[in-house]
Amino acid sequence: MPIDPVALTADLVRCPSVTPEEGGALDLIERILSGAGFDCTRVDRNGVPNLFARWGRKGANRTFGFNGHTDVVPVGDAAAWTRDPFGGEIADGWLWGRGATDMKSGVAAFVAAAVDFVQETPPDGAVVLTITGDEEGDAADGTVALLDWMAAQGEAMSVCLVGEPTCPERLGEMMKIGRRGSMTAFFTARGVQGHSAYPHRAKNPVAALARLIDRLSSHDLDQGTEHFDASTLAVTTFDTGNPATNVIPALCRATVNIRFNDAHSGASLTRWLEEEAARVTAETGVEIALSAKISGESFLTPPGELSELVARAVEAETGLRPEPSTSGGTSDARFVRAHCPVVEFGLVGKTMHQVDERVEVAQIEPLKAIYRRILKDYFA
Fold it and tell me: Where, in this chain's numbering, is Zn(2+) 1 bound (predicted)?
């Protein structure tokens, strides 16, 4: 019997898999895949649950991979939800619950498509599913752990599709062929505390750091590149922790987040930030230290065979030709891209991470059909 992706989505939503809790989601998927002839291995690392599943021979000439996650963000204020966030309730044409959009429906769709495909038309090759419980967290022991394990075991994907939500308004209108890089910079300015009536006897870290932050936020990093929009820098916090109005504090902190295109790297942006901080230190005498965390570099899978394969299948099932895009935040595709060519395609993501997260039921079966067609065309 074909797997019903709507029912599977509901069952997955009922698993309270808030990062890094497994919540029963990967256990459920493993039972389904094992029963369909997939070789399944749990690749847990440092308490993070991960699942690798392969149908077909290891080392096959062609291996199509799917990647996704079953972990979800916290529900927040549960009282603000209209329906139980882990109820998997279907009402008014929607399936409600945390993870319904991001991305248990996508996982359900590609699991159902993969099982139906290999049972109905066993391909000359292999199908691999890598599913993590650590995408919404630090992501250090999720897809990265799976790829590390695969390298050690001689497992490989020829190409991969990540089932993240990619469409702004209608199923079929957008796919991701790359993502911007992401980094966060933490600044700490250390001055000399003093009385506000005698500012010449102090070194004000607030004024110095404000000067630096203004320069950074006023700077145009670039005008965009062929496949990417312009890079952006956003100031996310500026703090002194000073309750007194007549005291110049000794310490001030600020944080900025940068989303950058392929005109930059995390290293080049870190050097720029260090240079700007050193310039303000020289001007003011206030020492400004920088700590940078790079979450991922920008990457691009150039338009070609894989993106065309996905575009044809989407258009055949929806009538829409998906726009190749690099917009949005980060995803685990940033890790997969070092392993093989990767494209992302999934359903409409308007409600992800929101209170009353929900997915339109009418999107889930067509998404399975798209994934099923992609597999059929890939192995044709």
Answer: 69, 102, 164
